[in-house]
Amino acid sequence: MSGCFLAGGRWLLSKISPGGPAAQPFSPLEGFACSWLIGSWACSTLWFFLGTAGFFNPKIAVAMISAGLLWAAFQIPKVHLPSLRPKLRFAAESLIILWVLGTAVLMVAPQTYWDTLSFNMALPSGYAALGRFQPNIFNLYSYFAQNQELLSTWALLAGSKEAAFLQMWGFWAVLLVFVYGFLSRAASRTAALIAVGLFLSTPLSTFLAVHIKNDLQVGLFLMMQWWALIFSLEKSEKGGISARRWIFLAGFFAGAAYGMKMSAMPSIAVTALGIALFMRPRAVSLGIFSLGFAAAAGHWLVRNVVLFKNPFYPFFNSLAGTDYIYPWHHHFMTEFRLMSLGWPGLLQYAENFTRFFPAGPFSHAPYWWGPSAILCLAGLACLSPRHGPAVRKVTVLVLASWLFTMMFALKPIHQLGPLLFFCMISFGLGLHAVIKSSVRLRFGTAAAVVTALILKWLFYANKIYLLLILTAFITGAPVWHYVRTLQTDLKEFASIDEIEWVHELVDRHTQKEDVVLFMGGMRSYGIRRRNYSAMSWGPQPVYFFAEKAKDEKELRDILWGLGIRHILAEPRGWNYWAGGDMVDEPYRHGIPVERSELIKISRFMGDYTVQRFSVPSGGYQWFSILPPDGAPLPKMEFTDEDVYEFPQHYAAMCRKLQDNGESDEASRILNALEHHVFPARIEAQIQNLPRRK
Fold first, then answer.
1. How sure is the predictor about 579, in pLDDT bands with cuts at 50, 70 and 90?
2. Helix ranges (DSSP H) in 237-379
């Protein structure tokens, strides 16, 4: 996939900024990052049109990956490693490279983040099963721009969820390459190493590397927007086509950021205002920037106009003269923002930003910077006259974008563009200006960064999982035998491995054309079937369809007519929603829930469905709808392959069956377990199970 990114990106970059490498004002590493990112946009755009036309096809996905591998095979022999000097610096760079490569190992662990399981990876798995790109009326995020979700769909179509996971690591690694290349050229290698090391020392760094989301990509493209703007400001005094090309490229990166997530809009708006203030002729500069934006994001805007009569749906409906297609498409706005909390919220944000273990409503998520944020104040030196006008102006825009974005969300992951630019690029430039004349200050700053890295390892980093996963690779045992029973922050709901367990069973023991309906659960990732799943502030699909039926029999007929054959129920989630609560937010969803409809659904579940499977805890259950013609459902028997992936759960299930007097089924599962060799801890659980006499 990276081969496709680089091939397409280099070609497009050569058209926007012609000339060979020697003619470019940026370093080879910056060119690599720029090409890789442009290519990722190109591939996602290609999949946008393929999916819209109904060509989400595994053969096309594999063919594109093969083309990327072929291109890489011809390009690798042309790569010349730079001279490895000086040794001390190369040693530091080698340690960083080892750290970065080691982080990739974490990508084989199961995903646990709620957003990942409910839309960032759930939507791609649904698109892959459907074979086309179309909105899911119950999932508001399917109406947003989704460049990253389309790239994940590509990986899933090719049959590799690991490739989808590693895309995040790829964007994270490209961020490090870009920052190192930029600062090595514009400042010094010492400043570059310190800036990269400082970022690696933060909890935010690991979070961005291993969680499947699209906020990092937004931040990267916004950083590239300001990178291009620096060149355009530097060349604007000379005029001519060169400055205009860079303005176009800045707009292009802004559009690519929007295509990843609409949270980029505050920063894009501030940048457009900056172009109007700082560049002449004003109208021409804004027009070129807008043209670049339209080139990268135009297909998303046109899609929304055609489907929803509003290019920014579901936002700005009143301005567009349109209404929500469904009432629940009114986007839920978090209260954790400056518009709600006021300036005291900014103080809480600043306090959390500088701590390893923050407090407050979002302290559970490790996306904060940590104590080393104090060092980032060196970025304010970019406002001093010792830096050129272009750097000073862009620094002002970055800080204004950061503050403006806080008006809508105080989570750092929603501000990654200005946050990362200031805390890495501005920090590196400011640090270089401060320390270049002081050896003592230089080594003191480096020592502070090394200390921060050590503290992260001791107090925060996922070192336990990393060691377990490395052990699994060394012993040859499957990773899941070590990392099972993973929980989310909402421990009263089904665990991650329970969800994966049931989804695997459904995929293996149902027909590909069957449609699955989620009831109470929202974490639909991993189910390779077309499905209906909802968000916490919207209606449950079964309730939506129940309102259209006069009784439970008609509800069965409606679901059967839609191809729905199976229901995956999370009882605790259903009880939460039926009681008016949101599962993943401490708020009420505000949707009227009628008792008569709940009774209708209960009768439907009792009369027209049969439970096929339940995890031992009862937290996740699989029901099948009884066929109208009375045809019997096939009996499900567990295979050796089934028990191999989830031995701990099958051991617990075996014990529960024995306690319930179902000794025959328990014996079959026990025999399947004994056909395999597991780690000692799991073998002990199996050996402790009572045998049939």
1. confident
2. 240-260, 265-278, 282-308, 317-320, 338-341, 343-353
Backbone angles phi, psi at 154, to 5 degrees: -55, -50
Average pLDDT of the segment spanning 579-587: 74
Look at the pTM and tell me if it is higher than 0.85.
Answer: yes
Residues 6+ apart with CB under 8 A from 78: none
User: Mean per-residue pLDDT for 347-376?
Assistant: 76
CB of 171 closer than 8 Å to CB of 221: no
CA distance 639 to 323: 51
For residue 487, what pLDDT is reported?
A: 46
Tens of pLDDT, residues 71-112:
777 765 554 445 444 444 566 677 777 777 767 666 666 777
User: What would the two tokens of residue 458 be?
Assistant: 């001791």
Phi/psi at 621 (nearest 5 deg)? Answer: -135, 145
Q: Is 425 left (phi over 0), alpha (psi -120 to 50) or beta?
A: alpha
Q: What Å distances lie between residue 530 and 140, 382, 523, CA to CA?
A: 17, 52, 14
Backbone phi, then psi, for 97, in 5-degree steps?
-60, -45
Contact 509, 636 (CB under 8 A): yes
Point out the least confidently predicted range of 157-171, 345-359, 521-535: 345-359
**Are residues 216 and 258 in contact, defined by beta-carbon separation less than 8 angstroms?**
no
Amino acid at 679: P
Q: Is the pLDDT of residue 240 over 90?
A: no
Asked if 438 and 458 count as a contact pair (C-beta separation under 8 A), the reply is no
Q: Where are the domains of the chain?
A: 2-106+116-459, 496-632, 641-687
Fold classification of 496-632 is Rossmann fold (3.40.50)
Cα radius of gyration rounded to whole Å, the chain: 27
Would you tell me how many other CB atoms lie within 10 Å of the CB of residue 581? 15
Report how far residue 99's alpha carbon sits from residue 457's, in angstroms, rounded to the nearest whole number.
Answer: 11
User: What DSSP string describes 199-259?
Assistant: HHTSHHHHHHHHS--SHHHHHHHHHHHHHHHHHHHHHHTT-HHHHHHHHHHHHHHHHHHHH
Q: How does pLDDT run across 484-522, given as a tens digit for each residue?
A: 444 444 555 778 888 888 998 899 889 999 999 999 988
Distance, in Å, from the CA atom of 218 to the CA atom of 414, rounded to the nearest integer, reads 9
DSSP string of 645-685?
A: H-HHHHHHHHHHHHHTT-HHHHHHHHHHHTTS---HHHHHH
- 322: phi > 0 → left, psi -120 to 50 → alpha, else beta; which? beta
HSE, side-chain direction, 13 A CA sphere, residue 596: 5
Please name the residue that has the structure tokens 């904060």: 368
Write out pLDDT tens, residues 178-237: 999 999 999 888 889 888 988 888 888 888 888 888 999 999 999 999 999 999 998 876
Q: Which of 314-328, 403-417, 601-615, 648-662 has the lowest mean pLDDT?
A: 314-328
**515-519, strands of its sheet edge to edge:** 530-532, 515-519, 564-569, 621-625, 609-614
Residue 177 to residue 227: CA distance in whole angstroms: 14
CA 4 – CA 77 distance, rounded (Å): 17
Other residues' Cβ atoms within 10 Å of the Cβ of residue 252: 26
Predicted pLDDT at 470: 52
- Is residue 583 a contact partner of residue 536, using CB atoms and an 8 Å limit? yes
The sign of the dihedral angle between the CA atoms of 603, 605, 611, 613 is negative
